[in-house]
Specification:
Blueprint lengths: L1 E5 L2 E4 L6 E5 L16 H13 L4 E4 L9 H11 L2 E8 L16 H14 L20 E5 L7 H17 L3 E4 L6 H10 L7 E4 L7 H9 L3 E4 L10 H13 L6 E3 L20 H14 L1 H16 L1 E2 L13
Parallel strand pairs: 3-4, 4-5, 5-6, 6-7, 7-8, 8-9, 9-10
Antiparallel strand pairs: 1-2, 1-11
Helix pairs in contact: 1-2, 3-4, 7-8, 8-9
Length: 325
């Protein structure tokens, strides 16, 4: 049975509906000091706007140590009616101070952390050592991060741990690419560790809107998430629409997902900012539908992300849905 692990338990992949493939429901990182967002009520309000825009599932790609709140994540999923697929894994090294345990833990510990999040339940305190408190809410995807044009020595170790966890559990693996760089290097390293490109989602590739590069990555089997929708400081959304049209003309929309990757409090409507997490369904999807039609929209919002997120489990039914721990 093709299922996806959400914070409320396994869901059949084809029941995810329209998927925003890159979000952050809660986030705190030293990279963006003062722009953290950790308020449960505001998170629920933001996801209610997402639901009103026609999105049924968000993939929360917040990795270990950056403000994950599994119990509260389950709460806002229930409140909003939006499925939430949570991540485990490690971001690029800039997100972890020099003294952070992830920089110094041995390889076995790094892997154990990821497998616990995926198989037992995410730590209530987001692995703020020394004593983990597992919840019943499991991660359903692995998130890794690469630096600008390179993968540093810490990231290489985290890639190895992430790849091992992906092999053991069958979940997909997302990679932060800084401004869309080091994409081939990321695929090469994951392939070295036994993860095929077809199980990899490369984030922020639209920050480098190079159609030839994107087609080369897809030719290797990779999936791309165009996830800076509404972020006009990078480029107008018309450039992204052109890029999606190029992928459609090449017959490659089945490797494209969409998201908004709202990573700052100042970008969330619940905090008085913008464009808001709902910009995908509210503004961009209608433009994409006018440009390419219903079938293209269904491909990038449903068929592609549902297939990528799915893993196979044995048995005749879904395990019991998790509860708030």
């Amino acid at each position: 049975m093709s299922v996806v692990e959400t914070v409320l338990g396994p869901v059949a992949a084809d029941e995810l509906g329209d998927v925003d493939a890159h979000e952050h429901v809660f986030l705190r990182t030293p990279v963006n000091p003062g722009d953290e967002f950790l308020d449960t009520d505001k998170a629920a309000a933001e996801l209610l706007r997402v639901a009103a825009g026609g999105i049924h599932t968000v993939v929360d790609l917040t990795p270990v140590g950056l403000g994950r709140r599994p119990g509260e994540l389950a709460e806002v999923s229930r409140t909003s009616g939006v499925h939430v697929v949570a991540a485990t894994g490690f971001h690029r090294s800039a997100h972890y101070p020099a003294a952070h345990w992830a920089r110094h833990a041995d390889d076995a510990t790094l892997l154990d952390v990821l497998l616990d999040d995926l198989q037992t339940g995410m730590d209530r305190h987001d692995w703020d050592f020394p004593r983990p408190v597992p919840t019943s809410h499991k991660a359903g995807i692995i998130k890794l991060g690469a630096s600008y044009h390179r993968i540093d020595r810490h990231e290489e170790r985290w890639f190895a741990a992430g790849a091992a966890a992906a092999r053991d559990t069958g979940v997909a693996l997302a990679v932060h690419t800084e401004v869309g760089t080091a994409t081939h290097a990321a695929l090469d390293l994951l392939d070295k560790h036994g993860v095929p490109a077809g199980r990899v989602l490369l984030a922020h590739t639209d920050r480098n809107p190079d159609p030839e590069l994107h087609l080369d990555l897809i030719a290797r089997g990779a999936h791309l998430v165009y996830d800076t929708i509404g972020r006009i400081k990078y480029r107008p959304d018309s450039v992204l629409l052109d890029l999606i049209e190029h992928m459609a003309e090449a017959g490659r929309l089945n490797h494209i997902c969409l998201g908004t990757d709202v990573g700052r409090k100042s970008s969330l409507r619940a905090y008085g900012g913008g464009p808001g997490m709902d910009v995908l369904g509210r503004d961009f999807v209608p433009r994409l539908r006018r440009r390419l039609g219903d079938e293209a929209v269904e491909t990038v919002l449903r068929h592609t992300p549902q297939a990528l997120l799915a893993k196979e489990i044995s048995g005749t039914g879904l395990p019991a849905v998790g509860t708030t721990a």
